[in-house]
Amino acid sequence: MPSLNITLVSGPPGAGKTTWIRQQISSAAETAVYLNLGSGNTPNDFRRACAIDPTYLAAEVAGLTVLPVEQLTDFLAHPLAGSAVYVELGFHIDLTSLILPDQMADCQRVAVLPPGTRHTEWHGWADLVVTGVETGAVLSQPHLWRSVLSGQVLDLASLNTFWYELTHGAYGTVQRAKGIFDVADGRSLHFDFVTGLAEATYLELNLPRWLNGRPDRFSGIEVVGEALEQEAIAQTIKECCLNDQAIAYYQQQIKDSLDPGDEVA
């Protein structure tokens, strides 16, 4: 059986885990495999994988294999020869009680931490500590909220207003927010916010424009913060979503303006 080259990556929200993994994948000669663990209802429930980071990496890194959580057992039994596997752990996973399959016992453990971080559980867990980005003050009771928006199409102007409000405290203290949204012109946009960093604009993912009805691909939002007004967040996002008639109108407008060679879905 081929040997497994597995790296576990952990750290607080917004420190740069996904960014570090992308850098390693981009500079490696091996075939790369990515798995995101730790997005269930309980700290060590791996049944539901967070799809924002996998979707982002799959769109932006050519040749990357994104491994669904439910396929992990089969993959470990029949791994890709010569592959480098990067497993991103959710920040809320209790590392002291984390139980991994026997095939992952010899993996490398990497902690991506904000500058100046000292004496944390990650230091005792990691084989290698990497300096990431500043994430602002540590929250005393961080809460994770997420919503899947697959099939929804959002008005970009309304989305921009909502994102500004979200990241400026209108719905509670936000330390980390990220999302992938399909908008009316067919693009899939990746939004990313970490408190303390410079304001960042959205990134258009390297995906075909979706111009035929409601998109059949992942979109969603994830927020880490304190005293989050979840119902207000959910309601405001709902108000950003377009109905079928509006979606059809805007998609037809875009299709009429595109060149024949433009890639659409």
Concise account of the structure shown:
This protein has 7 helices and 11 strands. The chain has 265 residues and is an alpha/beta fold. The strands form 2 sheets. Strands 3-2-4-1-5-6 form a 6-stranded parallel sheet.
Please give a structural write-up:
It contains seven helices and eleven strands. It is of the alpha/beta class. It has two domains: 5-131; 143-257, Hypothetical Protein Yjia, Chain: A,domain 2 (2-Layer Sandwich). The strands form two sheets. The chain has a six-stranded parallel β-sheet with strand order 3-2-4-1-5-6. A five-stranded antiparallel β-sheet has the order 7-11-8-9-10, with helices on one face. A hairpin with an 8-residue loop joins strand 9 and strand 10 (203-204). The longest helix has 14 residues, at 244-257. The termini are far apart.
Instruction: From the alpha carbons, calculate the radius of gyration and give it in angstroms.
Output: 19 Å
Return the structural class.
alpha/beta
Largest sheet: 6 strands, parallel
Overall 3D form: globular
Q: N- to C-terminal separation?
A: 40 Å
Helical segment tally? 7
Q: What's the SSE blueprint?
A:
Elements: E1 5-10, H1 17-27, E2 31-37, H2 52-60, E3 65-66, H3 72-77, E4 83-89, E5 108-113, H4 121-125, E6 128-131, E7 143-148, H5 156-167, E8 173-182, E9 188-194, E10 203-204, E11 220-226, H6 230-240, H7 244-257
Parallel strand pairs: 1-4, 1-5, 2-3, 2-4, 5-6
Antiparallel strand pairs: 7-11, 8-9, 8-11, 9-10
Keywords for this structure?
265 residues, alpha/beta, Hypothetical Protein Yjia, Chain: A,domain 2, five-stranded antiparallel beta sheet, 7 helices
